Structures are given as structure tokens and as C-alpha cells.
């Protein structure tokens, strides 16, 4: 389908085949990301490589498994530290939840705050991964992503919805959660592109 843009330029809308190909690419990317996450602390690098792969595919600039692997190797050099910090945050939240279940004074409040902090950290991590490029500083990316997480609540909510879909898929049909992970990568990439366009 061909439509006229806002400045009189003609642009072509993607057809069903292109949309389905992008959907299939998201699922394949989810498998690659899940495999790379098996290193436990490698999750940030895996999501960063997945986002770069999908960005290349949507802009028709290639997107082979070799490019994904090269991006993953580049991202994991410093990204493993971010992954380790993420597990430390998760452990702190687990302690809060245990305190809440044990009935300690203020435990429920601490558990709720910890859970919100964990969700916010996951969203910021995904937003940072969506903007990662080789040589970029994870510290700078995470600081900027943290600000965007707070200042763009609509975009952050969309990413939370993507995470919820993966969690529910894992509960009801665990093997399907692996390819669906690619949809979370695509959601983070779309949210970041939307924010950049604004």
C-alpha cells in the first residue's frame, strides 16, 4: 500500500509478508537472546545484541547471526558487570519479599518498594540495551535510561506489559517464553525509537 506522507513524500506501507517476516525475526531473536542469557550475567549483553539485530533488520542493513554474535561479544566485555549488578538487585528484592512474608514490621512496604525497584531496573536495563552501540558506556546508557524510565511512563508501561507477557507465557507454556523474549526486545526498541522521534 502506498500513502502520502506529511510533507508530500510518498511512502510505502509494509505489506503482510514484510510484517510477518518481522514477527518471525522477533521470535528468532528471542531464541538467540535466550541462548545468550544462559551465562546468567550475560543478559544485558544478549538484549543489547538482540536490539541491534532488530534495528538492522528493520532498516534493511543486514542482520545475520554473525553480526549478532559480534555484537554480543562486544557488549559482554563490560556488560557482564551490569548483569552481576542486576542479580545483586534481584537478591536484595528477594530479601525484602522474605521480610514481608515473615511479618516483620514494615516488611510489606519494603517488599512493595523492592518489587517496584526491580521492575524499574528491568525497564531501565531494557531501554539502555535498546540504545547500546559498540563502545558505548553502560554506565552512561543506564543513567540516561533511568531518566527516560521515569520521564516517559507510557513507554515504560509498554515495556512492563511486554515483560508481563513473557512471564505469563512462561507460566502457561514455558517453551514458548523463549521466542517471545524477542517481543520484549522489539518493544524496548520501539519505545526508544518513539521517544527519540518525539
Question: Which terms would index this structure?
Answer:
about 200 residues; two-stranded antiparallel sheet; membrane; transmembrane
- Uncertain runs with pLDDT below 50, 5 residues or more? none
Give the helix level as a range of percent: over 70%
Beginning-to-end CA distance, first to last residue: 26 Å
User: Structural class, from secondary structure content?
Assistant: mainly alpha
How is the main sheet built?
A: 2 strands, antiparallel
Quick check: average pLDDT?
Answer: 87
What percent strand? under 5%
Shape: globular
What is the count of DSSP helices, taking H or I runs of 4+ residues?
7
Tally of separate domains: 1
From the structure provided, what is the oligomeric state, counting identical versus distinct chains? Answer: single chain
Helices and strands, in order, run as: EEHHHHHHH
Q: How many strands? A: 2
The largest beta-sheet arranges its strands as 1-2
Radius of gyration: 18 Å
Amino acid at each position: 500500500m502506498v500513502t502520502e506522507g506529511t510533507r508530500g513524500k510518498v511512502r510505502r506501507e509494509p505489506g503482510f509478508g514484510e510484517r510477518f517476516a518481522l514477527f518471525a525475526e522477533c521470535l528468532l531473536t528471542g531464541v538467540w537472546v535466550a541462548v545468550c542469557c544462559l551465562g546468567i550475567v550475560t543478559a544485558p549483553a544478549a538484549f543489547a545484541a538482540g536490539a541491534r539485530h532488530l534495528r538492522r533488520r528493520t532498516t534493511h542493513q543486514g542482520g545475520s547471526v554473525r553480526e549478532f554474535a559480534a555484537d554480543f561479544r562486544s557488549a559482554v566485555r563490560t556488560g557482564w558487570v551490569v548483569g552481576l549488578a542486576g542479580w545483586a538487585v534481584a537478591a536484595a528484592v528477594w530479601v525484602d519479599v522474605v521480610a514481608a512474608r515473615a511479618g516483620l514490621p514494615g516488611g510489606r512496604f519494603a517488599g512493595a518498594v523492592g518489587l517496584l525497584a526491580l521492575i524499574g531496573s528491568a525497564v531501565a536495563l531494557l531501554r539502555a540495551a535498546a540504545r547500546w552501540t559498540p563502545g558505548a558506556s553502560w554506565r552512561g546508557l543506564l543513567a540516561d535510561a533511568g531518566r527516560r524510565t521515569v520521564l516517559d511512563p507510557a513507554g515504560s508501561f509498554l515495556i512492563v506489559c511486554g515483560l508481563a507477557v513473557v512471564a505469563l507465557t512462561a507460566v502457561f507454556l514455558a517453551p514458548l517464553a523463549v521466542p517471545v523474549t524477542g517481543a520484549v526486545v522489539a518493544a524496548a526498541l520501539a519505545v526508544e525509537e518513539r521517544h527519540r522521534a518525539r
